[in-house]
Amino acid sequence: MTGTSEGWIDLTGKLALVTGAAAGIGRASAMAMASAGAVTIVLDRDEHGAAQAANAIQAAGGRAIARQLDVTSEPAWHDLADWLEREWGRVDILVNCAGIARFDRVDEAMFETYREVFGVNVDGTLFGMTMALRFMRKTGQGAIVNISSTASLKGNPAMASYGASKAAVSHFTRSAALETNRAGLDIRINAVLPGFTDTAMAQAVHDRFDEKLGGHDKTLAIFSSGRAAQPEEIANLVLFLASERASFVSGSTISIDRAQGA
Ligand SMILES: NC(=O)c1ccc[n+]([C@@H]2O[C@H](COP(=O)([O-])OP(=O)(O)OC[C@H]3O[C@@H](n4cnc5c(N)ncnc54)[C@H](O)[C@@H]3O)[C@@H](O)[C@H]2O)c1
Fold first, then answer.
1. Ligand 1 — pocket residues by CB below 6 A?
2. Which residues are known to be catalytic?
3. What is the DSSP string of 180-210?
4. pTM over 0.90
5. Which of helix, strand or coil describes residue 19?
6. Ligand 1 centroid vs 163 CA: distance in angstroms?
7. Per-residue pLDDT tens for 204-224?
8. 234: CA distance to ligand 1 center in Å?
9. Whole-number average pLDDT of the chain
10. What is the phi/psi pair of residue 102, to 5°?
């Protein structure tokens, strides 16, 4: 497989894990890791989707293995760690991409959606980081990319738990990066904050607003700078941050939204 960034980003010899890799941004990120030469572990609670994504990577000449993982399950992360130890003995890259969005408001009963959203977006990211860091501390190197969102940057009256969960992801990212930096480890931890990106998740949000605002063009104009990003456009930034090309980037939370939040 010829790389997206052949000769510029080379992940040959690296083991990369991507959660939420059956669809959307996660799938595009897994494809990007593999196309740069990494052996890529495609993780998703959707077993069939993960297998399909891994097959697509292999068909394109990359190396990928699918495994089912529900990121909310701590025991499932332990099982994954045991398997990784047995089979590979290392983790070089982790992309925490699995996420869900729900509509909720603070002035309504929201604890069900809050727990569900924080379970996937926050617990899932923390379980992933702590597992990967155990491996990375052994080699003293690694890169973690957490997928946050521009929805974390300001109040969000339609998806309060979602925005808050992504703010938590960004903040844990900064704290973890400081910890590894102060420990003298070459483990870089960053967050990517996509704006609207053309995936199943965004479609559900768009559908809701198209009706309210009077058409899809109006939704796009308000939320997406006229168009949504393609998952591959987000994956390019994920790939850069996972690579040595980003050797001085850590603790950063980087928006990728064509100035929508400017
Ligand atoms: N699409 C957007 O506009 C947008 C914008 C900003 C941030 N994001 C974030 O990007 C990430 C990917 O979103 P997407 O738009 O590609 O969504 P998507 O719905 O297309 O894909 C999400 C994937 O995560 C998986 N997943 C969900 N819960 C899981 C769990 N408990 N364990 C394991 N896998 C699980 C799903 O099966 C799916 O394959 C999410 O964290 C999302 O919050 C998306």
1. 19-20, 22-26, 44-46, 49, 69-72, 97-101, 120, 124, 147, 149, 194, 196-197, 199-202
2. 162
3. HHHTT-EEEEEEEEE-SBSSHHHHHHHHHHH
4. yes
5. strand
6. 14
7. 888 888 888 888 888 887 777
8. 13
9. 94
10. -135, 150
Domain boundaries, the chain: 15-197+230-256
pLDDT tens digit string along 24-33? 999 999 999 9
Q: What is the pLDDT of residue 4?
A: 52
C-alpha of residue 99 to centroid of ligand 1, in Å: 4
Q: Which stretch of 61-65, 192-196, 210-214 has the lowest confidence by average pLDDT?
A: 210-214
Match 């700078």 to its residue by tokens.
225
Contact in structure between 156 and 162 (CB atoms under 8 Å): yes
Q: Which pLDDT score, from 0 to 100, does residue 33 have?
A: 98
- Evaluate whether 25 touches 199 at the Cβ level (below 8 Å): yes
Helix segments in the chain, DSSP class H: 24-35, 47-59, 74-87, 111-118, 124-139, 160-182, 200-213, 216-223, 231-242
Q: Which CATH number fits domain 15-197+230-256: 3.50.50.60, 1.10.3720.10, 3.30.1370.110, 3.40.50.720?
A: 3.40.50.720
